[in-house]
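Extended Data, panel c. Modelled sequence:
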Amino acid sequence: MPALNRDSARAARAILSAFEAANLPALEHALERSAELLPPVSPYPDLEAERWELLQALSQNLLEGIRRMRRGLATRIEGLEASLALLAHLARTAPVVMPVRSR
């Protein structure tokens, strides 16, 4: 699986790809990486920060759901459909374009 970088759309695509492949170790890895990464410094901090905040919340929710299922405390992940829809939305979102600074 390719390494996640600090692009929220790419991170969302990596999570969806692992989910669609039914690759639980890859899914957990992608979720953990997304939950841990700090958003990049951007000239558009509000937009990218919101994307990362959403991505991290979704990642943490899905990881907790997987953990609850492993412990036998749940038979499904609460809000899975909504989480996947939001991840798909993030995955389709164009990356924030960083302006080139002239010297």
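Confidence is low (pLDDT under 50) at residues 1-5. This feature is highlighted in the accompanying rendering.
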